[in-house]
């Protein structure tokens, strides 16, 4: 049983490092592999096991030959893998993602400013006006 957890920890480290070398966010990595983000997160934390078939599928996305990925895991096992100490939850955004978020926030702020109330206390009409039906 103890051996299984070491295999998971070694696999977690190797996959996490390979993904981060390519600078692929976890959600996109999961999408590319057709796996859920929670499954990938579990594999990278060492809390979830992975089949050989799934491991080879991840190797393809990581642009690593399957045997090479397995060799890296075996090497990590020889070094004596440690429990992954990465924080759980969302990963920090890359600089490109931060720029996108800031640009989006600027657009939201502009919309909020446009929606401020008029001096009469009534909201300003934005967009098409509605016509009243004739009765």
Layout: helices, strands, pairs:
Layout: H1 2-21, H2 26-33, H3 37-45, H4 52-61, H5 66-79, H6 95-114
Helix pairs in contact: 1-3, 1-5, 2-3
**What is the overall shape?**
elongated
The CATH homology group name of the domain at 2-79: lambda repressor-like DNA-binding domains
The CATH architecture of the domain at 2-79: Orthogonal Bundle
Stated plainly, the CATH topology of the domain at 2-79 is called 434 Repressor (Amino-terminal Domain)
**Which oligomeric state applies?**
single chain
How much of the sequence lies in strands comes to: under 5%
Uncertain runs: none
Radius of gyration: 24 Å
End-to-end Cα distance, whole Å, is 78 Å
The residue fraction in helices comes out at: 55-70%
Which class do the helix and strand fractions yield? mainly alpha
Mean pLDDT: 80
The number of helices is 6
Number of strands: 0
CATH class of the domain at 2-79: Mainly Alpha
Question: Main β-sheet: number of strands, strand sense, barrel status?
Answer: none
Structure description:
The chain has helices at residues 2-21, 26-33, 37-45, 52-61, 66-79, 95-114. With 135 residues, the protein is mainly alpha-helical. It has a domain at 2-79: lambda repressor-like DNA-binding domains (434 Repressor (Amino-terminal Domain)), CATH 1.10.260.40. It is elongated. The model has no long low-confidence stretch (mean pLDDT 80).
